[in-house]
Structures are given as structure tokens and as C-alpha cells.
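ESCALATION

Customer reports they have been waiting on this structure for their group meeting. Please prioritize. Original submission:
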Amino acid sequence: QVQLVESGGGLVQAGGSLRLSCAASGRTFSRNVMGWFRQTPGKERDLVAAISWTGADTYYADSVKGRFSVSRDIAKNTVYLQMNSLKSEDTAVYLCAARTGAYEPPSPSPYGYGYWGQGTQVTVSS
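Update from on-call: job pushed to the front of the queue and completed.
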């Protein structure tokens, strides 16, 4: 059974930091782009950051550039999202996802990702 399990969410004050982790089990995603999305009630899932299978290439939404950093540990089958200088507008459920096919490029659409975690809540208080 393939699983992606996020952890590290919580309540933090504006300006603070959190580090999210996404641990994969059941198969390796060493040849898949991994992404972090976020979602608020009634809205679509938005891609926040993505990282290539080698970890050499990363993508960030404009709203988080310079504040968030995505990384991966292939040996641990784990992806991380370091979030600094958090703002109230960063409040959302954060979901980890893997591109459906190996070697597919990053995609801003959630429909290109076939594997999803259950999400972790991040709440930033102002």
C-alpha cells in the first residue's frame, strides 16, 4: 500500500517557522517529481513548491519565493518543506503529492499528481 504521510504542521505566530515532512512508504518515488500543495476551504489546491527527482531543480509559487524551501532525502524517501517568515495568508492544509509518472516535469495542476497525503494543518496567527 502506497502512502504519503505529512507531519510538522501546527499553530505558529506570524514571522515564525515550521518544517513539514512527507514520508513515503510502499514504493520509492526516487524518479518522481514531488510537490507541496495547499488548500483552504472552498478553494482549489495550489502548488506551493515542487522538487525534481534528483533534487537539483525546484519550483516555487511567487507568493512563497524567498520564504519557503523544498528539499528531499531520496534515501529516506522523504520530502521537506521549510517555511520561514510565515504570514497569516499561509494558513491552509498542506498536502504532499507525487507526480503520477516517473520523469514527468513539475505541473502546477493537482491533476498531474496521482499520489497524495492526507494533509497537515498550518495555522499562522497574526
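Sent to customer with the following note: The chain has a mean pLDDT of 96.
Escalation resolved.
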